[in-house]
Amino acid sequence: MSALSADTAQLITEKTDGLADRLIEWRRDFHAYPELGWMEYRTTSIIINELKKMGYDVLYGKDACKEDERMGLPCAQEDEEAVARALKEGADPELLKEIKGGHTGAVAILKNGDGPVIGMRFDIDALPLQEFSDSGYFPADKGFNSKHPSTMHACGHDSHITMGLGVARVMAELKDRWSGTLKILFQPAEEGVRGAKSMVKAGHVDDVDIMLAQHVWPHEFDTADYAPGSGGALATTKYDVNMKGLAAHASGAPQKGKNALLAACTAVLNLYAISRHSGGSTRVSVGKIEAGDTRNIVAEHAHFEMEVRGLTTELNEYMERRAKTIIDAAAKMYECDYEIIRMGEAISLDSDPDLMQQIADAADTVGVRANDPHWVEMTASEDYAFMMKRVQDNGGKASLLLIFTPSKGGLHSVEFSVDESVLTKGVKAIVASAVAQMPAR
Length: 441
Description:
By secondary structure, the protein is α/β, with parallel strands linked by helices. It has 13 helices and 14 strands. The strands form three sheets. A seven-stranded mixed sheet has the order 1-2-4-3-5-14-6. A four-stranded antiparallel sheet has the order 9-10-8-11. A three-stranded mixed sheet has the order 12-7-13. It is globular.
């Protein structure tokens, strides 16, 4: 690791502070036009064009993600509607032709002489929630609430995209201060942990020596601005389950029916009865269930959406095996057919301790305060873990930074919103951490 010189640290600070108004503009625009996973068309279009203006080589469309590794894709109608909306809202029509069909996301590459390959991940998708709009909620008061019904940036990815573009701008402007290669991955479909694996399978992090990612994190600014690393994120697998039975008159001939509703309900109740494991924390959740057509017909079809989680990848696999056994048994009880569709997955993750210390040291030179201890536990799941593991397995180092922000609502809440001061803090910390890992020119 190269020491970050005082004049380089000052330049990072000055350039980032000079970008503050632009960061706010980007963030508010992305917040107002949120897009769900694999349908981030307007978002991706803007990202690509901004990166090209900065001088990056940009991979996008089918080059961004390995096509057959994408999980949880929208149906054709949803995709067509999303493309049409993005076009109406100012997306580049030529780029839309290349990224439609769920080929969102982008990889920016800046080769700048000999040195390590530094990778970064910024996720770009939103959540299916109706945003809060009452007085006192910052985006509503400032007029940049979501323009899309039942869709909002409730996990802060609007600020993540913004930080990514800010980092790209400052790193490009500091090309005479560092040597190596910078790769910035703007990842689609993080929600539901569906997108990272496809970027890993496309080979984008195979040559990365140091991998960084960040996530805004609800926390007051009382003693620190961020945590240089995190871990303990649960491994998870997301499934959609479809039960197929046989309709019959509920009174006239119930014995001729095969009740998919009962099969689904039996499965759901018993999923929650899976024995917990002595090896660590495990979770199961069914968040949605739909079945049948009307009251006097034996339900022919049922659909439910579920997930399992585990403290480690092995514990999650245990939960998967038990869940599949239960679903199979429930279907057989009612003589129903079934299918289990894998909609998303993530493995467990842990940041490298020595890299966390290096990040803390570098960010301190640009006035961004690290949490002590540097490591913060995450109880959620994060598909960045696939990128982290690939880099670590190849002998590199990786960390997931948590950028603190006060917020009335927590992550995935309809009242979640970042304090906009985190935008410059995040850019400074990440740029300083990257430049400190690269030889000075």
